[in-house]
């Protein structure tokens, strides 16, 4: 699911929305994603938020033909950083090629994306390393979510230990 701005940037304007089904029905384990385009230093970046875990990804939009490849790479980095097994990482990354693009209509997810965009701007003021930015965003607690942090939710879903960046290997 993507915001109208990203929908247009990807060349989907004029296309009818796709029904993405219930949360978690698509994808190997993670399920649906909400995505948003934002700009930082005149660079188009995509913010992706997983509906099930609130795992947050940040990746470049350009070139737009590489949107899904950039999405898969950012997801691979995030899951690797959280010590998810390689086979699960590969499955989740492959699924992104088949997830339908749909317009984002969930106001709660849109609000969370707006909050994360603000935090992403703050992070980008300190580092241009998108992998580090997304790692830091995944430690942000979300209201009315259990577990509240994406790193804890991913650990729960994949049966791994929760990784804290300040206590983990540097990248």
Feature tags:
171 residues, alpha+beta, Nucleotidyltransferase, domain 5, three-stranded antiparallel β-sheet, 6 helices, 3 strands, globular
Notes on the protein architecture:
The chain has 171 residues and is α+β, with helices and mostly antiparallel strands. The chain has a single domain (4-164), classed as 2-Layer Sandwich (Nucleotidyltransferase, domain 5). Helix content is 39%, strand content 12%. The protein has six helices and three strands, in the order αβββααααα. It has helices spanning 4-9, 67-81, 86-95, 107-124, 130-137, 150-158, and strands spanning 33-40, 43-50, 56-60. A three-stranded antiparallel β-sheet has the order 1-2-3, sandwiched between helices. Strand 1 (33-40) and strand 2 (43-50) form a beta hairpin. Helix 2 (67-81) packs antiparallel against helix 3 (86-95) and helix 4 (107-124) crosses helix 5. The radius of gyration is 15 Å and the shape is globular. Mean pLDDT is 85; it is low at 167-171.
């Amino acid at each position: 699911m993507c915001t109208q701005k990203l929908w247009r940037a990807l060349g989907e304007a004029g296309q009818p929305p796709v029904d993405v089904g219930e949360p978690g029905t698509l994808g190997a384990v993670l399920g649906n994603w909400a995505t948003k385009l934002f700009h930082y230093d005149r660079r188009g970046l995509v913010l992706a938020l997983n509906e099930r875990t609130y795992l947050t990804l940040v990746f470049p939009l350009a070139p737009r033909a590489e949107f899904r490849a950039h999405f898969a790479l950012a997801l691979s980095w995030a899951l690797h950083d959280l010590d998810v097994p390689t086979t699960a990482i590969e499955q989740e990354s492959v699924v992104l090629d088949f997830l339908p693009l749909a317009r984002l209509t969930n106001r709660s997810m849109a609000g969370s994306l707006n909050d994360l965009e603000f935090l992403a701007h703050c992070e980008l003021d300190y580092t241009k390393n998108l992998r580090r930015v997304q790692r830091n965003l995944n430690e942000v607690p979300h209201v009315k979510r259990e577990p509240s942090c994406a790193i804890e939710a991913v650990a729960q879903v994949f049966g791994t230990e929760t990784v804290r960046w300040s206590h983990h290997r540097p990248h």
